Amino acid sequence: MANFLAAIDQGTTSTRFMVFDFSGNVVAVSQKEHKQYYPAPGLVEHDPQEIWINTKEVIQNSLRVSGLTTNDIAALGITNQRETTILWDRRTGQTIGNAIVWQDTRTSDICTQLEKAGVKEIFSQKTGLPLATYFSGPKIKWILDQNPSIREQAQNGTILFGNIDTWLIWNLTGGVHGGIHITDVTNASRTMLMNLQTLQWDQELLGLLNIPQEIMPQIRSSSEIYGYATSLLPKVPIAGDLGDQQAALFGQCCFNPGEAKNTYGTGCFMLMNTGTTPIASKNGLLTTVGYQIGNSPAVYCLEGSIAIAGALVQWLRDNLQIIDQSSDIEPLARTVKDNGDVYFVPAFSGLFAPYWRPDARGVITGLTRYANKGHIARAALEATAYQTREVLDAMQLDSGRTLSTLKVDGGMVVNDLLMQFQSDLLGVPVVRPRIAETTALGAAYAAGLAVGFWKSQEDLAKNWMVDKRWLPQMDPEISKSLYSKWKKAVDRTLDWVE
What we know:
This protein is of the alpha+beta class.
């Protein structure tokens, strides 16, 4: 009897395969990092074949170590880094170069040209997104523009586009031997090509970016049986598909309008459930699809996207080498009592929400002879909290709701110093759930609902329990002063790229 649910969590830096029981407990896990390629400043790439090989490896490792078989798994869910763009040949399975990662800024000129053409409002009204290098649509256009022969093949239907979810599902279901070419509404809503009202590819937007409809995957809900895995997980239904941040929202059981979560990963992403009607942001946020369960109406969200969070810690480790491993950041930051008036704005790929300024670049400000690597470490952690505060301010203005508690997840939530500072800066409790792997869990939940493993979202909500809670301790006036200095630091990043 199949007593477990599985999920592939394909993130920006690694791929994980996780197996959960009915209560949401992790019973098996395997993880493997993949290489990051930086061909030039602002360019970020991944090798899709490496990601697929790693996916197969973590599935096999997890099953071998746990002693589980495919007969134990009721369904498989997929969650993925969003916006990262792949084109490949349906006949051979070969990709057209590397995947262009969501952080990549090579499409800046395309976005600028679209803005000059006066079509910015068309995109924002239809998709809820700004014209930004972040999203898949301009990346697809860039690849096709670089390769006239590939554009011709795309128009003939031999080239396929997909974000990572689509690439994995196509390979899992047979690849060149009948693999299905689909995505879900949450991933589609990150392309700048899906109409938020119709939940379908928009012909006008495809035309503006000169992208042939033939390459686009079919859009499905986030929870239904799409197809069945072949040799890797024979006959296991693939039944859940959500972008990673929406999966975390679902895994955190933010099922009611006004409930919000923040994921602290490579980047940092806050999502607030706004119900079944999309709310257009007036304060620099994204309007996006949160999830759609089967034939039920889609649930929408406001999202604040921050490009660099945990990636800043990795940068201190790999580029500056002031720490040996990421977990060293907190002890180093605790060697000083405060930030020493040092502020670190990690605008490595420009500033995302709520600014959307691709011309910005990273700065460290407030340096004096007093500053040391402890202050820089502390400023790096605090940067994530400041950016989250900016997003929350915008979210409360757009939604008209005041957040009472922030649910948190992701790799950085083990950092007590950061979580306490986050609570101090927001002035609200910050709560970590008992099961911290909410992204993979959300994908498993979606798959489980589709096959009847869980009967309702109420069943899922029963699994959510508090692991740790941080309460505000800082004098509000001190918090206000620190935040004011952060705003000054942000101003120093602007207009760097001409």
